[in-house]
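User: I'm putting together a teaching handout on how sequence relates to shape, and I'd like one worked example. Could you take Bifunctional ligase/repressor BirA from Weissella jogaejeotgali, show the sequence you're using, and then write out its predicted structure as C-alpha cells right after it?

Assistant: Happy to. First the sequence, then the C-alpha cells directly below it.
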Amino acid sequence: MTTTKQKVLFELLAHQGDWTSGDELATDLQISRESIWKAINALKKKNHHIESRKNLGYQYIETPTLDEDIVRYYLDDQHVDDIFVEQEVTSTQHLAKQYLTTHQVQKPVIFAAESQSSGYGRRGRAFYSPATSGLYFTIVLPNKTEDWSQVGLLTTSMAVIIAQTLEQFFPDERIDLKWVNDLFINDKKVGGIITEANIELESKSASAFIMGIGLNLTTETFPDELSNIAQGINSKVTVDRNQLLVTLAQRIIDTYDHGDIPALLDEYRRRSNVIGKQVTLKLGNKMITGTAKQIANDGGLIIEDEHGITKSFTSGEVIKTTVFR
C-alpha cells in the first residue's frame, strides 16, 4: 500500500524541475493541505531536499542518500520482483543469499545499501564500502539456461555494461577492465563484480546467479593498505546515485535478457588492461606467468608461457601485470 508520504514524493518527482503548489498536490492526490504539509516535512527529515516558496509551492531537488522509494519510482517494476535499499548491512551479497533461502525468484531482485561493514569480492577479499561516496548493490538473476558455455560470459558482459554506464555519468573518465571482474582507471581499481551461483542441491543446478557490484564513485580517502591500489572514479563530480543505480540495474537486466554477447565480448577485449602484457595468474596455490594473448570466446584468459605453450584459463586471479619494454 502506498503511503501519503510516498504519494507526495512520487508526485513531486513526476514534476521535477517545476514548481507544484500545495493546492495542486492536494487536488491531484485527493488529500488535505495539512496532509501535504506533514508529508513534505517527513520527506525533508529523510534527507530529501525540497524547495518551498510562497506563491510557487514545492520543487523536488535531490537527496544525498540512496532511497528505496526513488529507486522504485524510476525502475520499471515489471522487470523486477522486489527492491530493498538499506542504510548499513554486512554485505548486499549476504542479504541476497539469505533471501534465497526462503524465496524462489522468477524475476530479478535488487539489494542495495548505503554502506557495507563486510563487503567482499572474489576469494572473500574485503571491499571498502564507505557511506555517501560509493554504490554497493546485488542483483539476483534467475537462471534461464542450462547452456553453461555462456555462464563464463556473464561477468564479462556485465563489466562492459557497467563501464559504459559509468562513463555516461563520469564523461571525463575511461574505464578499463582487468580480467575478469575489476574496473580500473589507469592503474587503480575503482570497482569490482562478483558473480556467485545459488545451487539447488536436489537438481544440482543453479537456480539463480547472485551478482554483486561495488563501486567507489567519489571516495577520496582509503585505508593505508588500499591507498596505492584503489581510488574513487572522480571526487569532483556530483552523481545522483539513485539514478545511477536505476540505470545500471535496468541495463544489467536488459543485457541479461537480450544482450548481444559477441559484441559485448569484443568491447571487453578492447577495454582489457592485461592483453599484450606479461601477467602472473594465481590459480589455487599455483602461479602461472606468461603473456596474456587474448580473451577467449568463453571469457577465459589465454596465456602463452615462456616455452611458447598457449593455454586458456577460466578461473584464477591476475595478481601482477608488467608492460613489456
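A couple of points you could highlight for students: The first helix runs from residue 4 to 14. Helices lie at 4-14, 22-29, 33-45, 68-74, 92-100, 153-169, 241-258, 261-271.
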